[in-house]
Design a protein that fits this description.
The chain is of the alpha+beta class. The chain is 17% helix and 37% strand.
Length: 373
């Protein structure tokens, strides 16, 4: 035996190990339920299946091979049979715990698969360690159904780390809010009042539509949806629809939008189109006791006073006109500054009062029937 081999042998027998110590060894034998390691000690180290994994069905010969290098933690220096009892599973868990602790302290972004959808949130697993993400921290918007996340890999940060109480809390919302703020800042840097931009209808309310501009949402108010009147935004737009809008105003992070493009303003050529004396056609849009408002074009309404409806006396416009009815009238006054137009049907005699038919009594109906026979 050489001097070197003799020294190595002396080192091996003089080496001491303690419970809890981390040792490195080489796999010298593998059985379905046991791994044998040469750890440079007078006795070999043994890792049972239970100390390798939580999965009791794993065949260790399929995951470890002779000659592999492994680290393990000493559980017992002598198991009674002269062998050292080791654990790979607990050492791995400690390493993961240490890694998660560092990620928590450094605000590191983690990524893991969603393995469970619970009533109160999501369960994500990283290296056999379960991390809980409460429903309120899953998204930056309220989501009633979280089942769509099942099986997905998601990114999050740790906002609470207490392994002793088995409480490790993840937060995905924080990342989404930060990303949204970044994209919003980028958008606000590149857009200006008056810019024309395309967006997608994200949400509809009674007062308008929120348009996703690719970094921030802008509000398209109901009053800016048309030059004419809009009763309900849901009758004009649908969620997911692409719209072309222009930036009307920017205040801090609030963006006001409009589709009433200035070049399409129906009052641009109104002086010529609606000059006094012109004959126009329009649709009765709404009525009051003193007159009817007639839409000549989207955004251009004219007043037809009750006294100008007919050469005969009319008590109320609703007695002779209907909403949506098309009429012909003469423009008798045009005020461009105040955007007021007055009409007259009487001036061109375009209205003929309807003949009100009296309901026939039973006797007259019987006479008519007899005459026909």
């Amino acid at each position: 035996m050489s001097e070197m081999n003799f020294e190595q042998m002396l080192d091996e027998f003089s080496k001491t190990i303690r419970n809890g110590e981390v040792v490195e060894g080489t796999v010298i034998d593998v059985k379905p339920d046991e791994i044998v390691l040469n750890i440079g000690y007078k006795a070999d180290g043994i890792i049972t299946r239970n100390e390798y994994t939580n999965d009791s069905s794993v065949d260790l010969t399929t995951v470890v091979s002779v000659g592999d290098k492994m680290e393990a933690k000493v559980l017992k220096v002598n198991d009674g049979d002269g062998q050292v009892v080791l654990t790979y599973k607990r050492l791995a868990a400690e390493k993961v715990s240490k890694r998660l602790e560092e990620a928590y302290e450094n605000g590191e972004v983690l990524r893991g698969p969603v393995t469970q959808v619970l009533n109160g949130g999501l369960s994500v697993v990283i290296d056999d360690t379960r991390i809980f993400i409460p429903a309120s921290l899953v998204s930056d918007i309220y989501e009633r159904d979280l089942s769509k996340y099942m099986g997905q890999e998601i990114e999050f940060v740790l906002t609470e780390f207490n392994p002793r109480r088995r409480r490790i809390i993840g937060n995905r919302k924080q990342l989404l809010v930060a990303e949204k703020a970044r994209r919003q800042a980028e958008l606000l840097e590149r857009i200006n009042v008056g810019d024309v931009i395309e967006g997608t209808v994200k949400n509809l309310t009674d007062f308008g539509a929120f348009i996703d501009l690719g970094g921030a949402d802008g509000l398209l108010h109901i009053s800016e949806m048309s030059w004419g009147r809009v009763e309900n935004p849901k009758k004009v737009y649908k969620v997911g629809q692409t719209v072309r809008v222009y930036i009307k105003d920017i205040r801090d992070t609030k963006i006001a939008l409009s589709v009433k493009f200035p070049e399409e303003n129906p009052w641009n050529n109104a002086a010529e189109k609606y000059a006094a004396g012109n004959i126009v056609t329009g649709r009765v849009a709404r009525m009051t006791d003193f007159g009817a408002f007639v839409e000549l074009a989207p955004g251009v309404d004219a007043l037809l006073h009750v006294s100008q409806i007919s050469r005969e006396h009319v008590d109320k416009p609703s007695d002779v006109l209907n909403i949506g009815q098309e009429i012909e009238a003469k423009i008798v006054d045009f005020n461009e500054d105040d955007r007021k137009i007055s009409l007259s049907m009487k001036a061109i005699g375009s209205y003929v009062p309807p003949v009100k038919e009296e309901p026939a009594d039973e006797e007259s109906v019987a006479d008519e029937t007899a005459a026909e026979e």
